[in-house]
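Example pasted here:
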Amino acid sequence: MSTFETFNADTGCLSFQGELTIYEANAASENLCRAFSTGELRNVDLAGVTELDTAGLQILLLARRLCTPAGEPVALVNHSETVREVLGLVGLEPSR
């Protein structure tokens, strides 16, 4: 199952659903950058992520480095169990 993203400019939330792997990394990265370029991105919701590999992890690390126009970091929220497991394997704690 491929991943798909939805961005809600009203809430500033980009939601990832499905797999976030090398096969989806290019599209996911483009959609993350597109959401960021609106100036409205505040959160990346990970509740729907069902598979995560190192390419997907790189997308999440990129998201963690982004800041809102107010200078606050974009938050990774609602980590699925899959995301928590991968972050644990690489010694990272979920943000917020």
Observations:
- The first strand starts at residue 4 and ends at 8.
